[in-house]
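Hi V.,

You were right to ask for the full record rather than a summary. Here it is.
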Amino acid sequence: MMSRYKITVFGNLRLFIQKNILFFRGTIFVLTGLIIVMFYPDEASFKFEYRKNKPWMYQDLIAPFDFSINKTEADFKQEKERAKQSIIPYYNYDSVVTCKKKNEFVIALNDCKTTGVPIKLNNGESEKLLAVIDSVYLRGIIQSQRNENIFHQTQTVQLVKNNSVEIRSRSDFFTIVTADRYIQSKLTQLGFRNISSVKSFVESFLTHNVLYDGITTQKELDMAFDNLSPSYGLVQKGERIISKGELITAEKYQIISSLETQYQEGDYKAVGGFGFEIGKSMLVFLILFILYFYVYLFDKKVFYRLKRIALLSTVFLSMVIPAFILYAYVPEYLPAFPFCIFAIANKVFFSSRVSILSYIMGVLLVGSFVVGGFEFSLIQILVGLLAILSLKSLYRRAQFVTTALLVFGGYLLLFVVKSLM
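Predicted structure:
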């Protein structure tokens, strides 16, 4: 009794579907379109292909919004280098170090006068040596340039002394080497005996007292970098960027690439809201209508069987929806998406004619929003056709190996052609 009831229910359901098959077929059509529209990218994309020193092949390009013209990486790097070269490094005159070393020297001089170690000096010689080291520290011993390697060995420095800043030449100061020569000459001039011992004694109290101020210098460098603009200027909305047939010069190329960057970074969303939604909906339903109408004309077995038309829509969705999702998160990996798998899946379930059109419609739909859509669609369609046409017999396993090799060879050949053009 129960089994007879089930048969009756399923029979009535089948009869209901058969009587309303046009409604269910239309429902599948509409649901497929709505799902695609829902996943279709809302973000506008830059769909033009262009090359430097080639003519602009499209209609006049008008700026759709205000955007800045980005500087090239090389130009911006050169500006940063010029900013570095314009910075004059800061040095601090360290009076604490100066006083400390001079006091130590005075104590050592007194010891020499009383003990004669390490050198023997009288009162007159002590005064002379004190005057020599005073003159050295007063002029200043500058720190080595290796501590300011971000600069190009500037010949001027900004000296901070007694809370004031003055620009001085690097040659105004001693280095350890030039201070050694100066002491040597002064000792000779003053008539000291045993100059070598005296010079070694004095040099033991020498140290840098003009020290590189990396913190202040870096702050000034950061301020200089902050003042650098990453753009050349601004292109206003409605301004003509380039006319059809006009040569793409280096200047025009930079403007167009700046516009493309704005699109890629998502700074410009599809404005026009309602108009954009209407446009993409019309495109999606037009592609689906062509596919369904073709099936109606050339493969009525698929069209009139609800399961088959549902399967056709499912395969179509399984190709375009993952592509939409991939583009939304990692658009640079879209060319690596395995579209050929869906070409083979179409061939498994449907005839070659239906498979080819379904695959082409799917690729065209995806290519409608990607950058370089024509190039993308051309490569995917040609390789997909190669995959479908190479599958003569689905019962031979070797056929799939042959198809895989042909697909790989097709991709390789097309990318070589692309690189040569």
